[in-house]
């Protein structure tokens, strides 16, 4: 699939998919293999299995999916860059790169500089390659957060006559979405928030608003996203994010942080040699002037933003600080809003496959007390994505690297999306208002049960 050996059979498939449906014997019997979890990883014999590793495995991808994902690699990017140099200018494609905020700490640690300087050096490298525009996706995440907040309020208010209204599950993690659609089905999919992820909102903005501003046809823009997670490649090839009329995707290629770093090494370019070039602003002088992040533990902070918004909107309470209560482990935590001894809201953050399984079991038994659950497939959240946190030598999460990235990420200033004037401008100029039909069309999608996998793979059962 990817140059980083994402699905090399001898490394993974013979171990983690040998008990998958596709590997079952003709009579349907499956041998049992003991498994346990260590630090958020499933261990089956000598193999380590992350949820994302399982979901990205070639064993459960269609041939069409495999082909689409195989085109998202460094070779494809270099091919386009070379083509732009050789072909007639009328055939050029404008290359746009979008940087996920959770990828920037990886480069800050690798370069040994602050996060703003790391972003500027990364921008300088990409523009040196031939990328014309480099943005960060914080504004797109702001759209996703605001739309999630609004949807939660609507769901909460109809909870008594809609059995699928609550709990609401966040939708920004493609590993979780893929697992829900292919394995959990109707138990979960009606509960998933319909707001698009920051990546796909960014893709929509690039191929719609930005291309119009540049007087370009969307198919003349090639959009690359730099992300911490391999599963973002799967999200980019979803059918609903493809414009069949223009024959173009909102996101043409997803490259992980480590893939970009490998390209730097291939080009023999050290961080000291890279020029520092400021990122382009989505609204020119009206856009962001500095890198900011949203509340949260190394992800986009959907739980915290929705919790504070709901407390104010539903109960008139201003919540300044959120206190997490650790339950099973630091990747299964809950927050509660109380007044006069009464519990008004109860949210949970559930990260990692083992904790997701616990959540699903409770869901089946009708014992989920939460109104909202922020679900991420990677233990530790997005900073721990396999596309940057996994050591090249051992193939395991580098805990020291993750700790460094968490420290760098937390050093970024926080800005509420509600207070971002660029978002307000784009809602009006691009979407005709925050609650418009255009906003609903471009900022939302739907999740549904898929039938490719009829039963839960035995190695996922607990």
Automatic annotation (TrEMBL):
The Iron hydrogenase small subunit domain extends over 395-451
Q: Which family does it belong to?
A: Belongs to the NARF family.
**Origin organism of this chain?**
Austrofundulus limnaeus (Annual killifish)
Which superkingdom heads the taxonomic lineage of this protein's source?
Eukaryota
Q: What is this protein called?
A: Nuclear prelamin A recognition factor
């Amino acid at each position: 699939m990817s140059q980083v050996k994402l699905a090399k059979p001898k490394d993974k498939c013979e171990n983690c998919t040998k008990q998958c449906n596709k590997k079952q014997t003709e009579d349907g019997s499956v041998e049992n293999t003991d498994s346990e979890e260590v630090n958020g990883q499933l261990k089956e014999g000598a193999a380590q299995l992350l949820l994302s590793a399982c979901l990205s495995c070639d064993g459960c991808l269609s041939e069409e999916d495999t082909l689409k994902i195989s085109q998202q690699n460094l070779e494809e990017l270099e091919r386009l860059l070379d083509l732009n140099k050789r072909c007639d200018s009328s055939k050029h494609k404008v290359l746009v790169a979008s940087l996920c905020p959770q990828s920037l700490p990886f480069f800050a640690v690798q370069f040994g500089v602050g996060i703003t300087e790391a972003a500027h050096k990364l921008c300088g490298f990409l523009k040196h390659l031939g990328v014309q525009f480099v943005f960060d996706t914080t504004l797109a995440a702001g759209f996703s957060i605001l739309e999630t907040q609004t949807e939660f309020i609507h769901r909460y208010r109809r909870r008594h006559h809609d059995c699928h209204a609550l709990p609401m599950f966040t939708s920004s993690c493609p590993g979780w979405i893929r697992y829900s659609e292919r394995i959990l089905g109707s138990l979960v999919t009606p509960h998933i928030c319909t707001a698009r992820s920051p990546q796909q909102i960014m893709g929509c903005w690039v191929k719609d608003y930005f291309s119009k501003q540049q007087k370009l046809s969307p198919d003349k823009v090639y959009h690359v996203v730099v992300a911490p997670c391999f599963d973002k490649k799967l999200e980019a090839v979803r059918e609903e994010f493809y414009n069949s009329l223009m024959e173009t995707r909102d996101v043409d290629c997803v490259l992980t942080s480590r893939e970009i770093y490998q390209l730097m090494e291939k080009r023999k370019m050290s961080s000291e040699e890279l020029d520092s070039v400021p990122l382009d602003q989505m609204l020119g002088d009206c856009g962001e002037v500095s890198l900011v992040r949203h509340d949260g533990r190394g992800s986009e902070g959907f739980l915290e933003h929705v919790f504070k918004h709901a407390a104010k909107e539903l109960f008139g309470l201003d919540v300044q600080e959120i206190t997490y209560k650790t339950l099973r482990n630091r990747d299964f935590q809950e927050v509660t809003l109380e007044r006069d001894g009464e519990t008004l809201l109860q949210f949970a953050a559930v990260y990692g496959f083992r904790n997701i399984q616990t959540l699903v079991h409770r869901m089946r038994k009708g014992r989920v007390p939460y109104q909202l659950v922020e679900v991420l497939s990677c233990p530790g959240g997005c900073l721990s994505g396999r596309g940057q946190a996994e050591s090249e030598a051992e193939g395991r999460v580098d805990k020291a690297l993750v700790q460094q990235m968490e420290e760098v990420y937390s050093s970024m200033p926080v800005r509420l999306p509600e207070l971002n004037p660029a978002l307000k401008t784009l809602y009006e100029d691009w979407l005709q208002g925050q609650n418009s039909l255009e906003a609903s069309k471009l900022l939302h999608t739907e999740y549904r049960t898929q039938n490719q996998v009829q039963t839960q793979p035995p190695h996922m059962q607990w």
